[in-house]
Design a protein that fits this description.
Helix content of chain B: under 10%
Strand content of chain B: over 45%
Distance between the termini of chain A: 34 Å
Shape of chain B: globular
Oligomer: heterodimer
Number of helices of chain A: 0
Radius of gyration of chain A: 13 Å
Number of strands of chain A: 11
Strand content of chain A: over 45%
Structural class of chain A: mainly beta
Largest interface: A-B, 28 and 30 residues
Structural class of chain B: mainly beta
Largest sheet of chain B: 6 strands, mixed
Chain lengths: 115, 116
């Protein structure tokens, strides 16, 4: 059983297209995240949802729109794709704890290549 | 604001040698610190975490890390490297913000190479 699963694993698309990445977790966690890993392996948070409510939006272009239909799913839709959007996108989930001591569990990543 | 700095973007060791990956943190409150490993084309896997219960934390695959407040460090070590340890290693700190929510802030990563 995969704890955090993302689809697709690879995505190659042309500039200007719209694409979506799906994420599901079966850990019963109430918080989910999207992270972006650039070509230098640097990881940066993009969004976070807690119980379907958006709680973090880290100055991401509004071409990126997350959607959480329920607390087990967090999807990422990207409009008008640009070359600079090429990266690996990771979904993650964690249990909510006030002090922040709980770890996040990561999916396998979606490698997005915009040509 | 909380942050972590990983010293050395690339570390190379011989098989059987000591592994030492350095991480320093900056935090105005007692930090929660994590080490993750990323194997090629894979997601991130938790190696270990520090949550103030003990300063020496043991993790998976023979790794451990020691929290040193006086040095603001949380270095990762393994006594004897194995070829399978070759991967990217990330140090992270949990940052809490308004509403009591938190997020992981990652260091830039250290690529560990293990040669025969």
């Amino acid at each position: 059983d995969t704890a955090v699963s993302q689809t697709p694993k690879y995505l190659v698309t042309q500039m200007g297209n719209d694409k979506s990445i799906k994420c599901e977790q079966n850990l019963g966690h109430d918080t989910m995240y999207w992270y972006k890993q650039d070509s230098k392996k640097f990881l940066k948070i993009m969004f976070s949802y807690n119980n379907k409510e958006l709680i973090i939006n880290e100055t991401v272009p509004n071409r990126f729109s997350p959607k959480s239909p329920d607390k087990a799913h967090l999807n990422l839709h990207i409009n008008s794709l640009e070359l600079g959007d090429s990266a690996v996108y990771f979904c993650a989930s964690s249990r909510y704890r006030v002090r922040g001591e709980t770890e996040a569990f990561f999916g396998q990543g979606t490698r997005l290549t915009v040509v | 604001a909380q942050s972590v700095t990983q010293l050395g973007s690339h570390v190379s060791v011989s098989e059987g040698a000591l592994v030492l990956l350095r991480c320093n943190y900056s935090s105005s409150v007692p930090p929660y610190l994590f080490w993750y490993v990323q194997y090629p084309n894979q997601g991130l896997q938790l190696l270990l975490k520090y949550t103030s219960a003990a300063t020496l934390v043991k993790g998976i695959n023979g790794f451990e890390a020691e929290f040193k407040k006086s040095e603001t460090s949380f270095h990762l070590t393994k006594p004897s490297a194995h070829m399978s340890d070759a991967a990217e290693y990330f140090c992270a700190v949990s940052a809490t913000f308004s509403g009591g929510y938190n997020k992981l802030i990652f260091g830039a990563g250290t690529r560990l190479a293990v040669h025969p």
